[in-house]
Predict the structure.
Amino acid sequence: MNLLFSRYLQQLQNLLKDIEINEKEVILTTAKKIANTLADDGLLYVFGCGHSHMLAEEVFYRAGGLVPIYPVLIEDLMLHRGGARSSDFEKDPDFAFTFLKDIHFTEKDLLIVASTSGRNPVPIDVSLYAKNKGTHVVGITSIYYKEQQSSRHSTGSHLSEVVDTVIHNHIPVGDALIQFDNESIGVGPGSSVTGIAIMNSLIVEATNQLLQLGVNPPIFRSGNVDGGAEHNEALLAKYQPLIDKL
């Protein structure tokens, strides 16, 4: 029996192995930049539209996660306000400037922008705005889109062409890992799994780098484990003035 779920899980494993092998150096370099950012009292900002916003939520206020993470969560770009609506806003060449004035990027910070296609205006405009503030910008994106799909940004650039550092998530164009031969049907997206794996890989390695720098990493503990809430209270007291969503 041809079990498609088994094939899908195997495809995910193949993607994660590709990332482990081919993105090793850039993940290690980026993790070191994150560690240096946090050691110097900067913040790690994370932004994405549509499903990509989950990468910001995954590492924010997370048991076993670093504390100084600022998720840039714009509700009009998230699915609960309307899926098609959020997609329209992401493609709007003016929309990013309606919220960027409220985000205080500095040269001490680092920003990760997630967009698998990397072709829509908002992720690109957020990246350019942050770079103009002196913030180092990392893009998690699929290089394959740049090779096969034109940009929708006024500059003609893709996300991978405007950020300082690119982490390739190795997702095929269309983000469907299982194709049916009899019809043009593709299912089984992979970008959320690979994106979240990349984010947590960065957090793990950044934590290791902080320890090597002699810095005690600010890590949340689970509030569902005895003593966790008390541990977290001290961290919240320090970081809530800097991160309004905590």
